[in-house]
Amino acid sequence: MDTYSSPYSIKLRQITDEDFEAVLKWSKDTSFCLANGWELNRSPEELYSWWLRCVNNATDEFIRLGIEVNGDLVGYADLACIKGKSAELGLAIGESRLWGKGIGFAAAKLLMDYATTNMRISTFSAETHEANIRSRKMLEKLGFQEISRNGSEEYCGKNSQLIQYRLH
């Protein structure tokens, strides 16, 4: 494993219903909502219902872990479409003020190390928007290779090409 140092103490952990206060805070960050396809001005009740589904919905094909920095929940990391030795990697940093600080990179490394060691995952896929330069740079820094450009969807209020990546 490459050495990676960060000014933050970053760890992954199980998400809980007690994390809702942080999730509610993210829902008020317009940049985060636009970047992650979250509806603006969601009611706290609807958001709480969604979060409880996330907390209680771990399956053999999907795992969501919380990203904690210096004791605070700042985002989540997903392994989705888990089949055999492959899984799709997904990340969201909930406070836009923390973007571009290496937290996503460190969390992705932790999640991939966990998946490789505990689940024998050897192939990872990921998808991001062409306009999401930070995400693209992070995936490339992790060693992902672009494999296709299929589809498009809204990203930060504009239509953006989707780029698919893979790492073996």
Overview of the molecule:
- The two termini are 15 Å apart.
- The protein is an alpha+beta fold and 168 residues long.
- Strands 1, 2, 3, 4, 5, 6, 7 and 8 form an 8-stranded mixed sheet that branches.
- The chain contains 5 helices and 8 strands; from the N terminus they run βαααβββαβαβββ.
In terms of topology, how is this protein built?
Layout: E1 10-14, H1 20-26, H2 30-36, H3 44-55, E2 63-69, E3 72-83, E4 86-93, H4 103-119, E5 123-129, H5 133-141, E6 145-148, E7 152-155, E8 158-167
Parallel strand pairs: 4-5
Antiparallel strand pairs: 1-2, 2-3, 3-4, 5-8, 6-8, 7-8
SS element count, helices: 5
| SSE order, one letter for each helix or strand | EHHHEEEHEHEEE
Average pLDDT, all residues: 92
Return Rg in Å.
15 Å
Instruction: Please give the number of β-strands.
Output: 8
Give the biggest beta sheet: 8 strands, mixed
Approximate strand percentage: 25-35%
Shape: globular
Structural class label: alpha+beta
- N- and C-termini, Cα separation: 15 Å
| Uncertain stretches of 5 or more adjacent residues | 1-5
Keywords:
168 residues; alpha+beta; 8-stranded mixed beta sheet; 5 helices; 8 strands; 31% helix; 34% strand
Brief overview:
By secondary structure, the protein is of the alpha+beta class.
